[in-house]
Amino acid sequence: xxxxxxxxxxxxxxxxxxxxxxxxxxxxxxxxxxxxxxxxxxxxxxxxxxxxxxxxxxxxxxxxxxxxxxxxxxxxxxxxxxxxxxxxxxxxxxxxxxxxxxxxxxxxxxxxxxxxxxxxxxxxxxxxxxxxxxxxxxxxxxxxxxxxxxxxxxxxxxxxxxxxxxxxxxxxxxxxxxxxxxxxxxxxxxxxxxxxxxxxxxxxxxxxxxxxxxxxxxxxxxxxxxxxxxxxxxxxxxxxxxxxxxxxxxxxxxxxxxxxxxxxxxxxxxxxxxxxxxxxxxxxxxxxxxxxxxxxxxxxxxxxxxxxxxxxxxxxxxxxxxxxxxxxxxxxxxxxxxxxxxxxxxxxxxxxxxxxxxxxxxxxxxx
Amino acid sequence: xxxxxxxxxxxxxxxxxxxxxxxxxxxxxxxxxxxxxxxxxxxxxxxxxxxxxxxxxxxxxxxxxxxxxxxxxxxxxxxxxxxxxxxxxxxxxxxxxxxxxxxxxxxxxxxxxxxxxxxxxxxxxxxxxxxxxxxxxxxxxxxxxxxxxxxxxxxxxxxxxxxxxxxxxxxxxxxxxxxxxxxxxxxxxxxxxxxxxxxxxxxxxxxxxxxxxxxxxxxxxxxxxxxxxxxxxxxxxxxxxxxxxxxxxxxxxxxxxxxxxxxxxxxxxxxxxxxxxxxxxxxxxxxxxxxxxxxxxxxxxxxxxxxxxxxxxx
Lengths: 367, 314
What we know:
A: 16 helices; B: alpha+beta; 11 strands; 23% strand
C-alpha cells in the first residue's frame, strides 16, 4: 500500500544506522499492532543485511538493548556489536528492508517472507506458501516417532530398511527430520495433495539428505531415503475397485512400519478464530479438517490396515498431531475391542500432551 | 618429552666420556665442558617441564564452558560494567579463535546487562577462562553520575564447564517448563516464531530462560545444557571448597565471592589480587587478558610443584 510505503520511506531514511533502523521499525510495527514485532524486526533486518543465519538476529537483539552512546565509557576500539550498531544501511539494504517490512505489515508470515526457517535439527528448511509453516508442537511429534524408531531398531531383524509413511507432508519437515536422524536405517515415503508441496518436500530432501546418499547420482540416492508423491490418503491404495483411478497405475509398496501425520485438523467452527497471518496466507486445505476436524484423520484410519500390511506380527503404530478435542473422540470411536475398532482394524492406544499441557498427539495401533 | 630427556642423558654421558678421554688436550676439554654445561641446562629445563606435565590436571581443563556475567552492587553502573566485561571477553575469545554464542541475556535498562550467558567452544577454553571466575570490582565515575564522584560497583563472573548426562543426572519430574505458547490456542491454529523456553529446576530453584534458537526443541536442549552446567558447577564448587579447606589454600579457581580483580579508571590500572600485580587498563580493555591468565597459570603450577615437593619430602 502506498501509505505504508510512504511511512516507511520517511521513518527509515537513507544512511540510517542499524541501531536506529531497529528502533524505528520496531516502533512502527508496534503501532500497527503487527504480531511479534520484535522478532519481525530482528529477522527481517538480519535478512536484509545478509547477516549470518545463526547469529544475525541475535546480534540485532543485543543492539536493540544497547542504549544510544553506550560506547562513551570505554574509549578503546568498538566491539563488533557496537560497530554493527553504528553501521549505515546501504541503498540496497534499505530498499530491501523496506519491502520486507511492507510484506510483514500485511501480516505475511515471517517464514514465507524469508523463505526458510529452522525445524527440529534442520537448519534453513525451505518454506513457501501455501504450505503450512512447521509449528514447534510438531517437533514433539517427530521426537515421539524417533523414540519408536530407536526402539524398533534395537531388535530390527528385517533385511530391508524401516519404512515410514508421512501423510500430508507439506514442506517435508516431519519425514525429513526423521530421515535426517536415521538415514541409513529408514526409508520415508511422503504424500501430499498439492503438487507444490510434493516438489518442495523433494527439494528439501535433496538439501538435507543428499549428503547421506551413497550413490554418485545424488537424486537416485536420496529416493532410497526419502520420496514425496502426489497422492491423497484415500487414493493411496492398490485396491482399484474403491477408487475411480486409472487401472494401469502401478502398485504401491505397502508394508509400512510406522505411519505419521500432521493432517489438517482444525474444526470448521474454529477456523473463524484464526489470526490473519494464518488464514490469509496458509493453505485452507492444510488446516481445516471439516466439521469436526476429523475428515482426513478418518481417511487415514480407513487406509491404515492396507498401508501396514505385512507378514510380521509386530505391532504397527500410527502417530498423529491432532486438535485438542480429538483424543477423546478417537478413544471412544476406536476403543480396543469395540465393534468399530474391529471393523476398522485399528485401535486407539493413548494420547500425549504437548509442552503446553494440551492433548496434542495420539498413538493408534493396527490390530 | 621423556624421550628427548633420555636422549639428552645419553648425550651427557657421551660428553662426559669425551671429557675424560680428552686428557691433556685443552681444546677438546673445553669443547666437552661447554657441551656438558649446555646439556645440563637443557636437562634442567626439561625436568621442569616434565614435572609440570606430571602435575595433577584439572579434569575439566579440556572442556568447553559457559561464561556468565552477573551485575552485582551498583545498579545501572554495575549493569554497564557487566557489558564492558562482556566486550573485553568477546575480543579475547575472537583472538583465541573460539566459537562464541550468547545463550541468555537480561539487558539493563540504561545499557549493559543484569545478566548474560555465553557458550564458548574451542581449544583449552575452560583451562584459560576458569581464572576469570570471581568478583570483579570497578572504581570509576559512572556515565550516569552528575557530580563527578567515583563509584565502586561489582560484577560476578561464573565459568561453568560443559557437561552431559554422565556428569549430572536430572530427573525430568524436577523440571517445570513453560513457553510463550502456554496461553491461548496452539498447534496449527497459531503461527508464531517466538519459541523461548523458561525452565525451573524445582529442587534448587534455579531458573533458566533460553530464547536464542529458532527451533523450540533446540531452545529446550540448550536450557537443559545450561541447567546441567550450573548444577555441575555447584558440585565442583563444593568439592573445590573442601579441597581448599584441606590444603589451607591460597590460589583457587573461584570461590564465587572471591574478589579477584579491581579496575581503577583514574589510575588506568587493573589490580589482579591473586598475583599481587598491576596491569595497564587499556590493554585489558582491548581484550589482552592473556598476560594475566598466563601469570595465574604459572603461579598455580608453581604452587602445585611446591606442594608436590613438600609432600615428597614428608
